[in-house]
Amino acid sequence: MVQSLKLNSGYSIPAIGLGTWQSKPGEVAAAIKTAVAAGYRHIDCAHVYQNQKEVGEALKEILDEGKVKREELFITSKVWNTFHSEAKAHENIDIILSDLQLSYVDLMLIHWPQGYAEGAELFPAGENGKMRYSDVDYLETWKAFEAAQKAGKCRSIGLSNFTHSQIQRVWDAAEVKPACLQVELHPYFTQVKLREFCKEKGIVVVGYSPLGNPGSAFFRKDGDPNVLTNEVVAGIAKAHGKTPAQIILRWFVDSGLSAIPKSVTPQRISENLAVFDFQLTAEEISKIDGINKNWRIVDLSQRDGDHPHCPFLEEF
Ligand SMILES: NC(=O)c1ccc[n+]([C@@H]2O[C@H](COP(=O)([O-])OP(=O)(O)OC[C@H]3O[C@@H](n4cnc5c(N)ncnc54)[C@H](OP(=O)(O)O)[C@@H]3O)[C@@H](O)[C@H]2O)c1
């Protein structure tokens, strides 16, 4: 049975979900249908992935079929950087619900703390490979999130890619405290300090790029490491008769974390959920903790590094 984590909103988030970034239109609907048939109930989406209309069509088909009810699914989406002012955040939430063909999402996240210039472009290009920024404070975005939650459009609200001091700022100003933080997290980027900080506040941590995104040409550079071929992980996989991906995903579950591996490959979609019939020992968990390299794959420090809210300016 898929384990879940309790959110401060009273709802529960399944520990393993399906990622949809880089799942192309034409692929993403099939991946979601395969995943739900395999037992996934948690799907991670975002406005900026530009595939939410197709996600919505797949969800409609699944719900119309009647085997799975809406309340059994946990759908996350994220408001994009060009929608940070209060009015634009409301607009983006409404677009997301319309694209997904849903009356509410289970979790809405502010995708990044740094805002981009508002307008039609998702990536408003500036000079020297930088974006054109907006100076809207994410506290304003959070106000819209609180109102959207009150209006029943999001059951839980949270943050993505925020540092501990940015989370603290939202926490201090918030009427509704963030339920969740989604950040890059895998055995080569274990985020121990940020995890401890969130644990103290009762914020559930969801790890993105949980497998270190081995197939992506988008952020990957020559010489970047591949956690799926790590020797420690391979040894533990052999001992359990499981694959390296399953060992990594079980490490999330046994560490009290959620993970959202992306795949459009049916066999991998099933493989990534088949992690609830075994457990890692404390020694195995600490061996995996020990391979941390503080290596991140999603690094926007070149593109967004001089934005005052760029999260990569702080240690954690
Ligand atoms: N909040 C944010 O800013 C943010 C940023 C990045 C990602 N995310 C979310 O997190 C999700 C996951 O992260 P990610 O897509 O960056 O990386 P990931 O899940 O770590 O890796 C995905 C890649 O691994 C391959 N793969 C999946 N399962 C595998 C397995 N069992 N064995 C070998 N290879 C496997 C996939 O290939 P195939 O698809 O070809 O099978 C794909 O190329 C995203 O899809 C997105 O929903 C959020």
Question: Please, could you describe this protein's structure?
Answer:
The two termini are 33 Å apart. The longest helix has 15 residues. The protein has one domain: TIM Barrel. The chain has 316 residues and is α/β, with parallel strands linked by helices. Helix content is 36%, strand content 13%. Helix 6 links the parallel strand 8 and strand 9. It is built from 11 helices and 10 strands. It binds NADP nicotinamide-adenine-dinucleotide phosphate. The site of NADP nicotinamide-adenine-dinucleotide phosphate has 30 residues, from helix 9. Keywords: NADP, Oxidoreductase. Pfam families: Aldo_ket_red. It comes from Caenorhabditis elegans.
In brief:
This protein is α/β, with parallel strands linked by helices and 316 residues long. Helix content is 36%, strand content 13%. The protein has helices at residues 28-38, 52-65, 86-100, 138-150, 164-173, 192-201, 231-240, 244-254, 266-273, 282-289, 301-304; strands spanning 4-6, 12-14, 18-19, 42-44, 74-79, 105-110, 154-160, 180-184, 204-208, 258-259.
What order do the helices and strands come in, and which of them pair?
Layout: E1 4-6, E2 12-14, E3 18-19, H1 28-38, E4 42-44, H2 52-65, E5 74-79, H3 86-100, E6 105-110, H4 138-150, E7 154-160, H5 164-173, E8 180-184, H6 192-201, E9 204-208, H7 231-240, H8 244-254, E10 258-259, H9 266-273, H10 282-289, H11 301-304
Parallel strand pairs: 3-4, 4-5, 5-6, 6-7, 7-8, 8-9, 9-10
Antiparallel strand pairs: 1-2
Helix pairs in contact: 1-2, 1-9, 2-3, 3-4, 7-8
The structure holds NADP nicotinamide-adenine-dinucleotide phosphate.
Protein name: NADP-dependent oxidoreductase domain-containing protein
GO molecular function: aldose reductase (NADPH) activity
InterPro entries: AKR, Aldo/ket_reductase_CS, NAD(P)_OxRdtase_dom_sf, NADP_OxRdtase_dom
